[in-house]
Amino acid sequence: MLTKELAAPNDLEAFWMPFTANRHFKAHPRLIARAEGMYYTLTDGRRLIDATAGLWCCNAGHARSRIVEAIQRQAAELDFAPTFQWGHPLAFQLASRLANLFPGDLDHAFFTNSGSESVDTALKIALAYQRAIGQGTRTRLIGRERGYHGVGFGGISVGGIVKNRMYFGSLLTGVDHLPHTLDLEKNRFSRGQPEHGAELADNLERIIALHDASTIAAVIVEPVAGSIGVYPPPKGYLERLRAITEKHGILLIFDEVITAYGRLGASSAAEYFGVQPDLVTTAKGLTSGTVPMGAVMARKHVYDAIVNGEGAGPEKAIELFHGYTYSAHPLACAAALATLETYKEEGLFERAAELAPYWEERLHALRGKPNVIDIRNIGLMGAVELSARPGKPGERGYDAMLKACDKGLMIRITGDTIAMSPPLIVTREEIDQIMDRLGETLDELE
């Protein structure tokens, strides 16, 4: 007999679900009722081990008491405060914490509510920066094929996932794309960063020659492409991008909505790879998924050019006409501060770094399973790419998700690629459970 809390609704029709096969789901629903630690519980009572940290975001695990209590206290004390021409203490405390967390002089935080908003914010800051320094002709933005930068019009314009773009018209003008970095012929079953592909960054020089550097404001890439199916950067690739952008006065934006806050065993991919971008977009792990929040970290010269530069106007003038009603929402700030304390107190970034080799070992042990054509990993991220069924792309991956659910495992799919990113609290024993259940799924998958 189900408890009242676990009871399922009797009508699923009204909710138009995002990124979901609505017809199939509503005929065969998978409804989550509870979460704790590493596990979800469905309304039918089944427990699933969470191999995806929710949606790449619950890095500290689920229902962590410090975070839950911080949100509860804050809701009773200050439920909302505007940050247009006003402020509240937690917003400044959190910004200072983030300035100390991110490497180099990424020391100013602009708060948003999601990764999509962080991306559009970073693109607008890049354009505003170029105008502020007298380079107003620099309006072009460069993304990358197969890149995912959220679902705002800016994000899908610089993004490179076909289905996210094809239905929505011409998008932003003046956008070009670098080639993606996945090369199965040379790098199949790589462990960590692939050996081949650094030269792909040199395509930026070709794009610059085509458009001229004086027209290009920024380049945006995911240091590790996540949503498309975990593409670690080839060795030397990010370093070459940084060198080319610096040479031509182009800002480099790292989209770290997935990789920031411990996913690679460091505060950020910028720290992990030792490459300093000009702007970093974040969200997801900032609050461990508990309250929607994002943050764009900007280097000092970017902030100073816009806020303190000659074109900033008089002291009482607004320097950047951009923001959101819920920027630095008090509940989100409380959740983020408690989340950062949890990461620090429990050493979760260091824990991820220590577990990464074992994660890699167990993941690559799936090589040789039916239909597996590639395995990729870095930090506590991993992907198993399956061959597509003839004429039915994505179907095998979808069936893998359903079969894994039957075995008590939540995985994420992108086409025929299985992507995994467990909470950073995962143990070796739980990694074993994840890989054993996934292995059984692959063995039984047609």
Protein structure class: alpha/beta
How would a textbook summarize the main sheet? 7 strands, mixed
Task: Quote the average pLDDT.
Answer: 97
CATH structural fold name of the largest domain? Aspartate Aminotransferase, domain 2
Which regions are unreliable across 5 or more consecutive residues at pLDDT < 50?
none
Return Rg in Å.
22 Å
Proportion of beta-strand residues = 15-25%
Number of domains: 2
Q: What portion of residues is helical?
A: 25-40%
The outline comes out as globular
* Head-to-tail CA distance between termini: 35 Å
| Architecture per CATH nomenclature, i.e. the level-2 architecture of the largest domain | 3-Layer(aba) Sandwich
Number of strands: 15
Can you identify the CATH superfamily of the largest domain? Answer: Type I PLP-dependent aspartate aminotransferase-like (Major domain)
Strand order of the largest sheet: 4-10-9-8-7-5-6
Classified by CATH, the class of the largest domain is Alpha Beta
Count of DSSP helices? 16
InterPro entries: Aminotrans_3, Aminotrans_3_PPA_site, PyrdxlP-dep_Trfase, PyrdxlP-dep_Trfase_major, PyrdxlP-dep_Trfase_small
Keywords: Aminotransferase, Pyridoxal phosphate, Transferase
Protein name: Aspartate aminotransferase family protein
Family: Belongs to the class-III pyridoxal-phosphate-dependent aminotransferase family.
